[in-house]
Amino acid sequence: MSNALVLQSVPSDAAETADNHSLWPRLFLNGEWTLQKYQRLLKQVSAPSQKPRSLDASGLVAIDTAGATLLLDLLGPDTLADIVERATGLSPEWKALLLAVATAMRGRQPPDAHKQRWGDGLEALGTLTVSGWRQLGQFFAFAGLTITTLLSLLVRPWRWRWTALFAQMQQAGLNAVPIVALLNFLVGAVVAFLGATVLAQFGATIYTVDLVAYAFMRELGVLLAAILLAGRTASAFTAQIGSMKVNEELDALKVQGLSAIELLVIPRILALVITLPILGFIAILAGIAGGAMVAVLSLNISLTQFIGIVQQVPLLHLWLGLGKAPVFAVLIALIGCLEGFKVSGSAQSVGERTTASVVQCIFVVILLDAVAALFYMEMGW
Amino acid sequence: MSVDPAIIQVRGLCNTFGSNTVHKDLDLDVLHGEILGVVGGSGTGKSVLLRSIVGLLRPTSGKVQVFGKNMLSLHSRDRSAMERRFGVLFQHGALFSSLTVLENIALPLIEHVGLSRAQASDIARVKLALTGLPANAAHLYPSKLSGGMIKRAALARALALDPEILFLDEPTAGLDPIGAAAFDQLLLTLRDAFKLTVFLVTHDLDTLYAACDRVAVLSQKKVLIVDTLENVAAESDPWIQSYFHGPRGRAAVTSTNASLT
To answer: Which terminus of chain A, N or C, has less C-beta within 10 A?
Structure first.
């Protein structure tokens, strides 16, 4: 096939020289300059060595914007516009296309490539640190804003939003009961098996009951419920509020003089504060039930015996465990909502914030649980 | 293809949503190389018609033929090949929010043609310029764009693969009058350059006057009339009369006549 782009500096026919001297060097365009042939074309052609002064497109079969782009890259917009004006064999449509491309790209600089520098890593670290501090600040600011809103609402009971509160309680609490119960039941059974395996060596299998009861009352019941809620509800909060932000619904609330904190955040926080202790209690019961099943079925401890031992566990441990639940609830709801507000308008951002919200919630819950365990131990409780 | 002038043939199209019938026995031909303006009151199913043709919506009954093939009975692979020959500009842009404008345009080039990222960006940059977006908009995310810029970026994406049929859903809504006029001009240039067929859903009377070869009026669940603008405007149907000869219609006619003389 003939070359797609040929630059001829002098006419082959001497007679033409006299004709019009200003038309040379002349560029000859051949073949198909289309998207389908783009890559082959790219290998074939190179920028002409001289600045052409006219164009002969009689060999051109087809051209589209991809071809026009390539031509533009080779010649530059000014030259292209120039030679298209004095082209022969170019249909008016293609001429219009090439001119449109050349005109549109005139005065635009080719983009400068982003250079890698040795300091980039350091910069990223710095950005991360600063944004970490800023996030912490944001969290406290958000918590403060929520608390003041809550306090101002306390004296105005007519502005309490019962419908939203109950809807959230159903979503976050009631609907989570089956999964929380099932999970804790299974973990209870696992703890009982684990305890039995270790304690049997000391002939103290009966203490398995104490192990399960203490573990679930003090730690596991509320902790597992909180972790489930972090995965299930914090993510939902972030995605809900984040989507509202993307749709500018939050802005719509604002210009109507409505407070997003009052409408969206307070009902969610209160719903979690009310439901997490209840869920935690259900989790404790389910965990102990799981332990009981293992004890009765494979450890030869009767149900009466099991219940008798559980009844001797001081009630303090239950309160110690459940006491953590409202704190976890506030943190989960605050983080979930705050991450929703941080969404910045893209689908990816919703995903990022939701991930961040779940990770932060679980981290904070476990960290706080560890601190609480230390504190309880030091207090001798 | 050039033998059969109708590039899109819709026959007996019915669309029913629950108890709400939007289209009933709708027939429409879109001819090769024309710019067909589709007008109609709100809720007459202009966008539904567009979605039925491009295959986003399975009609309740009826036949949609594009390039002489029945869209509804095509194998999914053939359909995908077919859909590459479409460019669609959605009403609200529907840009991918997690990609920059440039990446939005480059995506089909990378995925369908197999260009490298640099090559695709190169072409994308030209499309961007063609649609009149400034160069620095290339690296912005859609959430940072104004409404008019979103329209332009979406048009640039619709044009990415140099489609044969362009479906535009209210492209000039939200553009300033100057931008809208430039858009009409751009449409004509592109149509002439690529022999594009354009299916244009619009409310913009100026666009109808400036760019459309024929106008289809959707009313009473079907296409009331498809003809040149003069003939449509002369139709006696009351809705058409008030549409074309209401205050806005008259203004558009006057301005077109003024620019012609």
So the answer is: N
Let me know: does A59 contact A28? Beta carbons within 8 Å.
Answer: yes
Residue B136: inside a domain, yes or no?
Answer: no
The tens digit of pLDDT for each residue in A206-235 reads: 899 999 999 999 999 999 999 999 999 999
Does pTM top 0.90 for this prediction?
no
CB contact under 8 A, B192 and A96: yes
Please indicate, yes or no, if residue B59 is contained in any of the structural domains.
yes
Q: In chain B, how many domains are there?
A: 1
Has residue B39 been placed in a domain?
yes
Chain A residues lying within 8 Å of B189, measured CB to CB: 96-97, 100
- CA B227 to chain CA mean position, Å: 18
> Looking at CA atoms only, how far is residue A24 from chain B in angstroms?
27
Cβ of residue B19 closer than 8 Å to a chain A Cβ: no
CATH number at residue B21: 3.40.50.300
CA distance B136 to chain A (A): 10
Type and span of the H or E element at B70: strand B69-70
ipTM at complex level = 0.71
Mutate to test the interface with B, among A38, A342, A344, A355 (most CBs of B within 10 A): A38
The architecture of the domain spanning A5-105 is 2-Layer Sandwich (3.30)
Express each pLDDT in B54-105 by its tens digit.
888 888 888 888 887 887 777 777 877 777 788 888 888 888 888 888 888 8
**Domain span at residue B26?**
1-85+201-261
The residues spanned by each domain of chain A are 5-105, 129-378
Residues 6+ apart with CB under 8 A from A61: A30, A31, A32
